[in-house]
Design a protein that fits this description.
The chain has 2 domains: about 120 residues, Arc Repressor Mutant, subunit A (Orthogonal Bundle); about 300 residues, pyruvate-formate lyase- activating enzyme (Alpha-Beta Horseshoe). The protein contains 16 helices and 19 strands. A 9-stranded mixed sheet has the order 9-10-8-7-6-5-4-1-13, with helices on both faces. It has a 3-stranded antiparallel sheet with strand order 14-15-16, covered by helices on one side. α3 crosses α11 and α8 runs parallel beside α9. The longest helix is centred in the first third of the chain and has 20 residues. It is globular, with a radius of gyration of 22 Å. The relative contact order is 0.16. The chain binds S-adenosylmethionine and iron/sulfur cluster. S-adenosylmethionine binds next to β4, β6 and β7.
Length: about 450
């Protein structure tokens, strides 16, 4: 970027809209969850579910890693032996039974997502045992989408073979950055060849759909290092890519203090890197989807985006249209028609509740009509970059004219070139895409109280 006027505009937009805002993987966000929702509520809501709610999705959380990446914002713990993982799996199987016992009908599963932490810390037998238990207690279709987040540094051929045999058909690999200097600054040494072998082995075993996670805003990243990383990433021919902006929240994740502030690129440098990355991915034939995803045009996610069916959930952007998500494992979040629910984040507490025969949900939020209305506006903005407020209001039996405060805030954003508003239709402009979280924040009725607890907006 050389044009001074362009830099001035960017700096002005960052100053106004680059403040701390949620990533809106849900609305209300997890910051709003409280003990007002508990295991008894969850029990009641599970009992009310039926096959008429459609195929459900399942999220399994595996909170273990071999080594701590200093930027990590996930709920995980480093373990040096396998015993804690085996113990965890025993309780996970018990949790699947407890949830299945609480249901009134046997439900069908359309999608399973293993996240973490590092799900490939599970042994091949443990991974298979979890999927077998799901298949025992639910209808798990042969064609179900089974996705696993994978750390290529701890990926073995045996594990890949077991995963492919158990029906895993998508893998999402953590890459972040290929530059050795950046890798040293984040405590994650991972040469290109290691990732290339992992991708080749996964595809060779029949796990065809490969997503690579990259990050921008990491310490010691520069435009040059990001360009080099993207060149190497493209040579691996992924189907999908995520480019997550580093959420630096050391007040929540104290280990992030190991990253020197002086090594972090500033907001303008981050934005310039993100825009350059998007340019390079698009030039290579990827479609930019939502805030931070890219996919080949023939990939299902690109198709869903084109038809405005793409969804957003805790795993990011997805084709998953299920109304119900059941979460298993410590800290896992579930979504029911009535509420978000979250399991105890602490493994010992999660375990104690299961071993006492109770569901391990400890927090959540019941969704009122205003939450559901605002959630749909925010999700459409995050996914489609436009929303017809009158259409959404009609679906929720509400009057769009009530959004007076929101319209005044949008008028300011319109003057700054981030959105256009024509009657009830809000469009995020190409310039505004990087600030879409701030556009969504206009509709967030909880933000005033908690705005400072999130990472910066760009
Ligand atoms: C559970 S990890 C992926 C699997 C495996 N643990 C690994 O890292 O290879 C999920 C992804 O979240 C992203 N991530 C982790 N911490 C983050 C943070 N503080 N800000 C933004 N993205 C983050 C990384 O891109 C990471 O690959
Ligand atoms: S980024 Fe992945 S491997 Fe690194 S600590 Fe976090 S969950 Fe573990």
């Amino acid at each position: 970027m050389t044009d001074t006027a362009e830099i001035d505009t960017l700096d002005r937009l960052i100053a106004r809209y680059g403040g701390r805002v949620p990533r809106y993987t849900s609305y209300p966000t997890a910051v709003q969850f409280s003990a007002a929702v508990d295991a008894a509520d969850y029990h009641q809501w599970l009992a009310a579910l039926g096959r008429a709610d459609g195929a459900i999705s399942v999220y399994i959380h595996v909170p273990f890693c071999a080594q701590l990446c200093w930027y990590c914002g996930c709920h995980t713990k480093v373990v040096n032996s396998h015993a804690p993982i085996s113990d965890y799996v025993a309780d996970l199987l018990a949790e699947i039974d407890l949830v299945a016992d609480a249901l009134s009908e046997r439900l069908a599963i359309g999608l399973v997502h293993f996240g973490g932490g590092t799900p490939n810390m599970l042994s091949p037998d443990e991974l298979t045992a979890i999927l077998d238990r799901l298949a025992e207690r639910f209808d798990l279709a042969n064609e179900a989408d089974i996705a696993v987040e994978v750390d290529p540094r701890v990926l073995s051929r045996d594990w890949i073979a077991a995963a492919a045999h158990a029906g895993v058909n998508r893998a999402s690999l953590g890459v972040q950055d290929f530059c050795p200097d950046v890798q040293a600054a984040i405590n994650r040494t991972q040469p290109y060849e290691l990732v290339a072998h992992a991708v080749e082995a996964l595809r060779g075993a029949g796990i065809e759909s490969i997503n690579l996670d990259l990050m921008s805003g990491l310490p010691r990243q520069s435009l040059g290092s990001v360009e080099a990383t993207i060149g190497e990433t493209l040579s691996l021919a992924p189907d999908r890519l995520s480019l997550f902006g580093y959420a630096h929240v050391p007040w929540l994740k104290p280990h992030q203090k190991l990253i020197a502030d002086a090594d972090l690129p500033d907001a303008r440098a981050r934005l310039v890197m993100q825009r350059r990355a998007a340019e390079l991915f698009e030039a290579a034939g990827f479609q930019r989807l939502g805030l931070d995803h890219f996919a080949r045009p023939e990939d299902g996610l690109a198709g869903a985006a084109a038809e405005q069916h793409m969804r957003r959930n805790f795993q990011g952007y997805t084709t998953d249209a299920a109304n119900v998500l059941l979460g298993f494992g410590a800290s896992a979040i579930g979504r029911l028609p009535q509420a978000y629910v979250q399991n105890a984040a602490d493994v010992a507490q999660w375990r104690a509740q299961i071993e006492a025969g109770g569901l391990p949900v400890t927090r959540g939020i019941a969704l009122g009509p205003s939450d559901l209305f605002r959630a749909e506006i925010i999700e459409r903005l995050m996914c489609d970059f436009h929303v017809d407020l009158a259409d959404v209001a009609a679906r929720h039996g509400r009057a769009p004219a009530n959004l007076v405060r929101e319209r005044a805030m949008l008028a300011e954003m319109e003057a700054d070139g981030l959105v256009t508003v024509a009657k009830s239709v809000v469009h995020v402009t190409p310039e505004g895409r990087d600030f879409v979280r701030s556009v969504c924040a206009v509709f967030d009725r909880y933000l005033d109280r908690d705005g400072l607890r999130h990472a910066q907006g760009v």
